[in-house]
Design a protein that fits this description.
Blueprint: E1 2-9, E2 12-19, H1 21-36, H2 51-81, E3 91-94, E4 106-113, E5 127-132, H3 137-150, E6 154-156, E7 168-176, E8 182-194, E9 216-222, E10 236-249, H4 256-261, H5 267-300, H6 308-328, H7 335-361, H8 368-379, H9 386-395, H10 397-401, H11 404-419, E11 421-426, H12 429-432
Parallel strand pairs: 5-11
Antiparallel strand pairs: 1-2, 2-4, 3-4, 6-10, 7-8, 7-10, 9-10
Helix pairs in contact: 1-2, 3-5, 6-7, 7-11, 8-9
Length: about 450
């Protein structure tokens, strides 16, 4: 095999690889011999079929397989020989087009975008703050009140009286246009509507106030302009509602009985559990803020050329995600939106390369045990369906691999944090939750003027 460098410009490399005809011929005959052990040809025993007949019957098919395999292997060897670390799969083109004549050398070109080489900053020079917030008593109390409210009992109102705010109306409903055309998906039976909860379209609940069980009510509302279903956004609608029953909420009590109802020994153990769970939420927020600060520091201190293909793919991925989100809101992605996404894509690629280099240099790996632990944690998010989720993953190994990248990233971040200087800073809950956007998704911070290309 001969490898010639045709072009070396920035992160672009172009190689020409030549495979001698003798090697192609040798590999082809070996494959035909192997085929001869499996196929049948009238008049000959398996393994005893003459080579000229094998070439006549199977030559073209085997040649195609040999060419594909040879290109794959030689391309990998060529990049290894020239110490090339590809950013993406190389683009390969046959010198004589798609055809290949037996007896000739195999010649093809490889166009490759390589990974940039750069020096990782001294991680010990990173100095960042970790915001932490204490779980205040008022937060525990608010959480207990919410839990108690969600677990309060509702009793049927036996007397005939008008519905009031705070009541539950059990209703059947059917949504129609002003012209009387039924709206698909806008009907239901035995739905519980808590008056004053604000869960339904503005104006819906208010029009049930003062009505009684057995009443038929025509609720006249207009869907909000930003309603998730584009066809209904901003459209006036009449809901034909039959009130079947009124229910009134029992008193909200935060006591031992509530705790026992939730399988806790008493109110104190429930409070401890609430404090622990809230604390976990705070810890996750602190971790996100700390990671954001760390990624900002890495982004500010690294500047190097990025593979255009990687940036383009990341940009297109972000655009697709935004398009899906905008579509749900009945909006479209504008050119201005796309311009804002370009630096975000570049930041993601840059940080991805920096983290990958740090991980590679420090032999960071994701074990199978860590991978399966993450999968089981994901399955537990679907109570009662854990087995189906695990079966789905077992049949889709490529989905399992999607867990590897975030685990790897977190392990690299943990490694960096052992080198960096991290100072805890006590903040309020409002300060802790002021910016929950995760670092690699956030807009890039401005580069320091002193940042040098590496």
């Amino acid at each position: 095999m001969q490898v010639a460098v045709l072009k070396e410009e920035g992160l672009t490399r172009e190689l020409e690889v030549t495979i001698p005809a003798s090697l192609i011929q040798e590999r082809m005959e070996m494959e035909l011999v192997a085929y001869g052990q499996r196929v049948r040809v009238d008049g000959f025993r398996k393994g005893k079929i003459p080579m000229p007949i094998m070439k006549k019957n199977y030559g073209k098919m085997v040649l195609g397989e040999v060419i594909d395999k040879t290109i794959q292997e030689s391309a990998a060897n060529a990049m290894k020989e020239k110490e090339i670390r590809p950013a993406m799969q190389p683009k390969i083109e046959m010198k004589d087009g798609e055809t290949f004549d037996e007896g000739k050398d195999l010649v093809y070109t490889m166009k490759i975008e390589v990974l940039p080489t750069f020096d990782v900053m001294d991680l010990s020079k990173i100095s960042i703050e970790k915001p932490v917030a204490k779980v205040e008593d008022k937060v525990i109390q608010e959480t207990l009140e919410r839990i108690a409210g969600n677990n309060r009992s509702f009793e049927k109102v036996e007397e005939v009286r008008p519905a009031a705010m705070g009541d539950i109306c059990v209703v059947d409903f059917q949504g129609k246009t002003k012209d009387g055309v039924e709206l698909p998906g806008m009907s239901g039976n035995d739905m519980s509507v808590e008056l004053g909860s604000g869960q339904l379209i503005p104006g819906f609940e208010e029009q049930l106030v003062g009505k009684k069980a057995g009443d038929h009510v025509e609720v006249d509302v207009t869907f909000p302009e930003d309603y998730g279903v584009k066809e209904l956004a901003g459209k006036p609608t009449i809901f034909h509602v039959d009130i079947k029953e009124l229910r009134t909420a029992g008193e909200i009590k935060i006591d031992d009985e509530l705790a026992k109802k939730l399988n806790f020994e008493n109110l104190d153990t429930l409070k401890d559990a609430v404090k622990k769970e809230v604390g976990k939420d705070y810890d996750q927020l602190s971790r996100l803020r700390l990671k954001r600060a760390l990624l900002d520091a890495l982004d500010e201190n690294h500047s190097f050329d990025l593979p255009e293909t990687m940036v383009t793919m990341e940009f297109e991925s972000i655009v697709r995600q935004m398009e899906q989100e905008k579509k749900q809101e009945g909006q479209e992605v504008t050119d201005a939106d796309k311009e804002e996404l370009k630096p975000i894509a570049a930041r993601r690629v840059r940080l991805g390369l920096v983290l990958a280099e740090i991980g590679r240099a420090n032999a960071v790996e994701v074990s199978q045990e860590e991978l399966y632990k993450a999968i089981y944690a994901e399955a537990r998010k679907f109570p009662g369906q854990e087995q189906q989720v695990l079966e789905f993953y077992s049949k889709n190994p490529q989905v399992i691999e999607s867990f590897r990248a975030p685990i790897y990233e977190d392990k690299v971040v943990d490694h960096i944090l052992t080198k960096a200087t991290v100072a805890e800073k006590e903040v309020s809950l409002e300060e802790l939750t002021a910016d929950e956007e995760e670092g690699m998704s956030a807009k890039p911070a401005k580069k320091k003027a002193a940042a040098k290309k590496k």
